[in-house]
Structure formats: C-alpha cells, structure tokens
Amino acid sequence: xxxxxxxxxxxxxxxxxxxxxxxxxxxxxxxxxxxxxxxxxxxxxxxxxxxxxxxxxxxxxxxxxxxxxxxxxxxxxxxxxxxxxxxxxxxxxxxxxxxxxxxxxxxxxxxxxxxxxxxxxxxxxxxxxxxxxxxxxxx
Length: 139
Hints:
The chain is an alpha+beta fold and 139 residues long. 32% of the residues lie in helices and 42% in strands. It has a seven-stranded antiparallel beta sheet. It is globular, with a radius of gyration of 15 Å.
C-alpha cells in the first residue's frame, strides 16, 4: 500500500495509461493496450523483465470501476491476477493497495523456486512500484 495526495481521477489519469507503466511499474519495459482498454475485456501486451529474463505477459482487464479499482488476469510466463484499489482517506489522500497473485510454471520445482527467490522479489517490486507511482503522481 501507499498513500497518495491526489484525487482518484488524477490517479487514474496517470496510472491507467500504459505508456506511463515503464516509469513506475518495476520490470515493465513496454505496455501496448488494445482499443477497448481499460474496459473489462481490454488487453495490454506487456514486455516485462525480471531476474534478467525478458518475457511477454498479456494483461486482460477483469474488473474496472473508474476511480476505485482495476484488476487484471495475467497470462504468459506468469499466470495470475493483479489488482489495484483506491480508498479515500478523508483528508485529500488516497490509499492505493496493490495485490499480485500468481503461479510459476514448473510444478513442485516452480513452487520451491517461488518460495525461495521469486516471492520476495515480486513483493519488493510491487512495493517499489507503488512508491514510484506516488512520486510520479505527486511530482
């Protein structure tokens, strides 16, 4: 989570633009939306780098309420979901909460590698991404 001094519209104006993702979303190299994004069913083709490995992930919007929430189904090298919610704090700030749930390929070996290495890295990347988002929005 991160607290941002901004309106939900300002957050959406910046964070929902895939061309800004490389500026704040750790690991994103490029993000190209289709014509229906950010509506439910809209897709973003994301080029992502993690642990020195480049791969493609398709983000499909599975939930969207303007100013409140956007959630994605992730498919590709990593399969799972990602969700961002905005909760007004009553003092002109918004609490942004990001979650990321995923499975790595490879069965038991993938689960072991995930627990040992990837889970911490992904958690750190999500926290850094939210901090970067705050800096970008607040200036």
